Amino acid sequence: xxxxxxHSPSFxxxxxxxxxxxxxxxxxxxMMATSPDVQVEAKMQGGLLKSLKRGVLGGESVFMTTMTAPxxxxxxxxxANLPGxxxxxxxAPGRPLFIQAGSYLASEGGVEIETKWGGFKNLFGGEGGFxxxxxGQGKVLLSCYGALDSYRLAPGERLVxxxxxxxxxxxxxxxxxxxxxxxxxxxxxxxxxxFEFEGPGEVLSQSRNPNQLIEWLTERLPFTRS
Length: 226
Prior knowledge:
By secondary structure, this protein is mainly beta. Helices cover about 15% and strands about 45% of the residues. Strand 1 (about 1-5) and strand 2 (about 15-20) form a beta hairpin.
């Protein structure tokens, strides 16, 4: 599968170019358009229990959509719910990718998607304690709210990142959660808890925080007020 990203970085759309009978898996509802004769199938990947774990614990769709090209090949356009950038990353045996809930968009047929417990250090970061683990062989398409940043950490190099801005990180990167120094400063800044990552490996972040968007809308929409 080849991926061509256009309208970047604000309103990105990814065109997945598929060979004969090649398939792409994606989050339910992310398809925008396809070439003719592409077969569409929605099913629970990995069975009922794994699918429910992805939906209930991981914050993703229970059903995943599989798009399969005809004998002549084809293409599928996918887009995320929130405005922002898209990026592709490769996973290989022994090199999985850990993805924050809501940032997984699509992947090649050889990539397995499973919800994994990220530890209590992730539970209080505003995104839940479960992460999406992409493993196997192939491309993974990630989405974000706003623009994407990539931090390539050397062994022992550290990065402090607000939990709501995290998108994904590679196997080998370790993380822990800590408070911003000073309780009163944390309350005023709105950044009570942050992740501290340590290399080696890549960490991907987004320039906007979806949780802050939800809070902003909740304060202003009439039907949310008592």
